[in-house]
Amino acid sequence: MAKAAKKITPPDVATLTKAQAKVEHKRLALELENHDKAYYQDDAPKVSDAEYDALRQRFNAIEARFPDFVTSASPSQKIGAAPSGKFKKVRHAVPMLSLDNAFAEEDVVDFVGRIRRFLRLGDDDNIDFSAEPKIDGLSMSLRYEGGEFVTAATRGDGAEGEDVTANIRTLEDVPKKLKGRNVPEICEVRGEVYMTKQAFLALNERQKAAGDTIFANPRNSAAGSLRQKDPSITASRPLGFFAYSWGEMSAMPEATQSGMIKWFERCGFKTNPLTKLCHSVEQLIAFHRRIEEQRAELDYDIDGVVYKVDRLDWQERLGFVSRTPRWAIAHKFPAERAMTVLRDIEIQVGRTGSFTPVGKLEPVGVGGVIVQNVTLHNEDYINGIGGDGEQLRDGRDIRIGDTVVVQRAGDVIPQIVDVVIEKRPKNAKVFQFPKKCPCPLHTDVVREETATGEEGARARCTGEFACPYQKIEHLKLFASRRAFDIEGLGEKQIELFFENGWVKEPADIFTLPKRNIKIRLEEIEGYGETSVRNLFAAIEERRRISLERFIFALGMRHVGETTALALARGYGSWQAFHDACLRVAEGDEEAMAEMDALDQIGETVIASIRTYFGESHNRGIVERLTKEVTILDAEKPKSNSAIAGKTVVFTGTLEQMTRDEAKAKAERLGAKVSGSVSKKTDYVVAGPGAGSKLAEAKKHGVEVLTEDEWLKLVGE
Ligand SMILES: NC(=O)c1ccc[n+]([C@@H]2O[C@H](COP(=O)([O-])OP(=O)(O)OC[C@H]3O[C@@H](n4cnc5c(N)ncnc54)[C@H](O)[C@@H]3O)[C@@H](O)[C@H]2O)c1
Ligand SMILES: [Zn+2]
């Protein structure tokens, strides 16, 4: 029996040394960046929103303690993710922002307090708030010119979104022409595109039957349905739209948020019927409670409520703090839970041979989604002795027949958060963890080593590349959205192709069209000529692949997307990376030291790369594969503007734009904006009232620009 691994809780941010904080800050930044990409670009999150929010809160705490870690590239300064290459880009005339979060009631009190202080209001002055459900969909900006619908754009990174006009045209809730007389010449109506829970479940049923992607939640399915190249697919999926905000307006028809919402209705939009005007903090909190009670019965997903200062002149005065308005906050709901019975435990063998026990539940609805499977992490977790940082309270173990509490937080994989011991039946069965792999090789199961060389909690098959389970799992990963993203080659298809012996390794996918499989494929049920043609076209389309996706797709142990991205950025090209791997495999000290010097890369990854490339079988797989595909070099930051790559400091008062605008502009053009002057500063832009920073600039011989000179430099 393995010793119980200690539960790993990261040290309090307040106790970190600056050097430790720096390392963690970097790691979290990369991790968040990766999650953002999966969530916003691929509509396929890898962690729950609650887990994501926890990472972000820790990240923010580090930046709050060490403000000099904040750069323009930090996830804390960014919104969403850059538009994907799939659609034409649209630049937003008024940026689309995010919202600050409140989790506890105190946060709401603080929020109102901050507003009071900012506006210098007395305790008796009343602030009205528009309280609105926070629809868990995707935000959309609809542009009307002369009352006619002209463009629809997603939020993207806030500054630039994707042009989804053709897709949005298919939505019934989006008027093609605004109703009423005297509508302003330019109106940008903003709001949320969403899918009802019912439509989401029905869509997933259809997707499952067709062997297509299953969506994790209604938000992802709405985003996935909308961001289709073929608008007729969007048209076939029922999407709704609630209006609640606006962008560019050539004239303002109303002076309050609540007035604007009524105006949207008059124009022909749907607005959320639960929206309410509140006059005090108590009313806001009561609203939050009431909506939370109704949450499960609503036919669309919400993840909280939003409070907005009602008076627009006050909104204007309050303005923004980097990516969020000061006049609004999202008050989130805690994760959703439900109780059910654990019927059985099954073992899944993963791509690297590791065993994941999966709990089979009596199906239960959690927040509008039917949950049937939960991850049980590993043997120690099931036995209640922790390991890998996972353990139920009071060291509770999990037995077949137990009543368990399941949690889903916009979840991909739901979790058991508690076992109801009082309800444990007498005949509840202790699960016997297998000693042999269920694969035909029937190899012994060993415990994986941890980074420190100790015996870990996860078990794995020792069959390595000979274990068919591992081969098949690797192929699934290889073709998945996160890796090669081959449409029409889902898990079911991989299984079919593998069982027929048509695809035994990744390179075989690309030679499929060349071989005589087409005829045999068409004999299989569900494969018409068109679907074979589509599949082959999808395969062709993926012959060009980014370096980070390629590295990730190899499926090396400990090389997830974050690590793959770090490796791709570190080496730049496949050639350079591959050479390094071969040298590492030979034990070349210099190559290992070079790899070790990269951000995010440590011993565990290097050891894994060494094992992988040390195996001639794997080298063969890679060699055959690289003959079939073109691997693109890693992306470099854009560098076509005069200030790209330069470091700029703003000081004093700017007269033609706000500091935030100036900063945003500089960053869009690829410059880094810093808060302090050093030798590395390239320009100091000084307005009236500039003080010590100007002196610093002179001391270091940094070029000083006036606001006009600056505007000229950036081409305005
Ligand atoms: N699981 C993951 O991997 C992952 C990754 C990235 C983000 N996320 C989740 O996404 C969220 C952060 O994303 P975000 O920056 O878009 O912020 P947000 O979703 O918390 O808030 C901003 C958004 O709220 C929406 N909204 C809905 N109703 C609204 C209303 N009445 N008024 C105003 N806005 C309304 C808008 O679309 C707006 O863009 C977090 O909840 C996070 O958990 C998860
Ligand atoms: Zn096996």
UniProtKB/TrEMBL annotation:
NAD(+) binds at D49, A50, E51, Y52, D53, S98, L99, E132, R155, E192, K308, K332. InterPro entries: BRCT_dom (IPR001357), BRCT_dom_sf (IPR036420), DisA/LigA_HHH (IPR041663), DNA_ligase (IPR001679), DNA_ligase_AS (IPR018239), DNAligase_adenylation (IPR013839), DNAligase_N (IPR013840), NA-bd_OB-fold (IPR012340). It is an enzyme of class 6 (ligase). GO terms for molecular function: DNA binding; DNA ligase (NAD+) activity; metal ion binding. Its EC number is 6.5.1.2. One of its GO terms (biological process) is DNA replication. CDD domains: BRCT_DNA_ligase_like, LIGANc. It comes from the Bacteria. Gene3D superfamilies: 5' to 3' exonuclease, C-terminal subdomain, 6.20.10.30, BRCT domain, DNA ligase/mRNA capping enzyme, Helix hairpin bin, Nucleic acid-binding proteins. It holds the Pfam family OB_DNA_ligase. NCBIfam families: dnlj (TIGR00575), PRK07956.1 (NF005932). Belongs to the NAD-dependent DNA ligase family. LigA subfamily. This is DNA ligase. It comes from Bradyrhizobium lablabi. The gene is ligA.
